[in-house]
């Protein structure tokens, strides 16, 4: 079962997509998008894992210790920042959509329906 | 499109995705069977090269420092976007003296909880600063510590005083912090161009690995990014809280 972490990522991706498609509330749509995005963290960390490798912090392990790939971990950090910005912008749009249409149901967004 | 239409389209697309995933999974290398080169090289020489022991911070603020500049400005631009989207629209106005805003209380919050929330504030500031300045030694750095710093004024909000929170962190100060963080990081890069000949190249003495003042520009970049991130998050949060606590108007 050595592919299990990647299977978890795929599951997160699909379940998040299902959440986006089936949600009746824009906030739930946005949260589902963060679930989709969190699958990329699992993929990146899974790609960089080395068997029996330690975290790439050499503060209390010797410098020749076997360690995991720090590059993908930096990419995860970037990913998290982007997720925060995207979520913030989408939530701001949801606030304004609620003001304009009086509802957070995606089906009530008239501009999208026409 | 109706909900049923969306779901059936998703079912069709999901079938295709499942097929692609099955093909992909059959060709995957084993988990933990790592073949990359870049990560190994950094693991091997990073500490010797830059005297920082946290390789994630080291990559973020030295090896990939140019990417971090872009990342920082993505955050900056998106906060501008949030401010723009949540501006006061026609028919809306801010009512700074609204009673709920001054003395709002979270459902079921006792006075003990409110006092504890206030006691949290200095603790959060201390933890935030610690995480920012120790980024080059242990897990942490500007992004992580910046978010913790930004949560500190929220303690005042949890204690039931939104306007007091705005007094602790006035808009002008956090905006200035954010701009200082963004500009400071860019200036750090330019000073690298002046003193070392390459944009964002380290020219600050490296110090001894594991000491607080080590890693050259890692600490400096961390502090600038911490300012930028805490400012950006605070601006975003106060925008959302303003919507909920202060804005009043005739909605369509």
Specify the structural class of chain B.
mainly alpha
- The total count of strands of chain B amounts to 2
Order of helices and strands of chain B: HHHHEHHHHHHHE
Helix count from the secondary structure assignment of chain A: 4
Any idea what the shape of chain A is? elongated
Q: How many H/I helices of chain B?
A: 11
Shape of chain B: globular
Quaternary organisation: heterodimer
Give the averaged pLDDT of chain A, no decimals: 89
Unreliable parts of chain A: none
Distance between the termini of chain A: 48 Å
If you average the pLDDT of chain B, what whole number results?
86
Major sheet: arrangement of strands of chain B: 1-2
Helix content of chain A: 55-70%
Q: Which ranges of chain B are low-confidence, i.e. pLDDT below 50, for 5 or more consecutive residues?
A: none
What does this structure look like?
The complex is a heterodimer of chains A (114) and B (252). By secondary structure, chain A is an all-alpha fold. Chain A is 68% helix and 0% strand. Chain A has helices spanning 4-22, 26-48, 70-101, 110-113. Chain A is elongated, with a radius of gyration of 19 Å. In chain A, 25% of the residues are buried. The model of chain A has no long low-confidence stretch (mean pLDDT 89). Chain B is mainly α and 252 residues long. Chain B has eleven helices and two strands; from the N terminus they run ααααβαααααααβ. In chain B, helix 4 (65-85) packs parallel to helix 11. The longest helix of chain B is centred in the C-terminal third of the chain and has 29 residues, at 217-245. The model of chain B has no long low-confidence stretch (mean pLDDT 86). Chains A and B meet through helix 1, helix 2 and helix 3 of A and helix 1, helix 2, helix 3, helix 4 and helix 11 of B.
């Amino acid at each position: 079962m050595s592919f299990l972490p990647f299977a978890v990522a795929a599951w997160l991706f699909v379940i998040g997509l299902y959440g986006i498609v089936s949600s009746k509330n824009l906030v739930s749509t946005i949260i589902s998008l963060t679930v989709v995005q969190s699958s990329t963290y699992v993929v990146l960390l899974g790609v960089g894992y080395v068997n029996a490798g330690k975290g790439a912090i050499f503060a209390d392990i010797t410098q020749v210790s076997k360690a995991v790939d720090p590059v993908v971990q930096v990419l995860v950090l970037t990913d998290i920042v982007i997720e925060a910005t995207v979520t913030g912008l989408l939530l701001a749009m949801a606030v304004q959509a609620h003001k304009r249409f009086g509802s957070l149901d995606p089906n009530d967004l008239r501009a999208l329906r026409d | 499109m109706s909900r049923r239409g969306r779901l059936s389209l998703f079912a069709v697309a999901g079938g295709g995705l499942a097929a692609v995933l099955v093909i992909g999974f059959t060709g995957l290398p084993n988990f933990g069977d790592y073949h990359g080169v870049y990560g190994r090289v950094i693991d091997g020489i990073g500490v010797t090269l830059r005297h920082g022991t946290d390789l994630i911070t080291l990559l973020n603020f030295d090896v990939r420092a140019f990417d971090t500049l872009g990342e920082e400005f993505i955050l900056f631009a998106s906060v501008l976007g949030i401010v723009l989207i949540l501006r006061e629209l026609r028919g809306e106005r801010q009512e700074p003296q609204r009673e709920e805003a001054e003395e709002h209380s979270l459902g079921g919050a006792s006075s003990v909880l409110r006092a504890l929330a206030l006691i949290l504030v200095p603790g959060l500031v201390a933890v935030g600063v610690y995480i920012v300045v120790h980024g080059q030694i242990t897990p942490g750095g500007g992004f992580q510590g910046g978010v913790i710093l930004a949560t500190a004024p929220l303690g005042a909000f949890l204690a039931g005083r939104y306007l007091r929170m705005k007094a602790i962190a006035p808009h002008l100060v956090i905006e200035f912090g954010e701009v200082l963080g963004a500009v400071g990081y860019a200036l750090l890069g330019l000073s690298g161009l002046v003193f070392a000949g390459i944009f964002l190249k380290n020219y600050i003495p490296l110090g001894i690995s594991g000491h607080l003042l080590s890693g050259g520009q890692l600490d400096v970049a961390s502090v600038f990014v911490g300012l930028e991130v805490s400012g950006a998050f605070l601006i975003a949060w106060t925008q959302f809280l303003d919507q909920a606590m202060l804005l009043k108007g005739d909605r369509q």
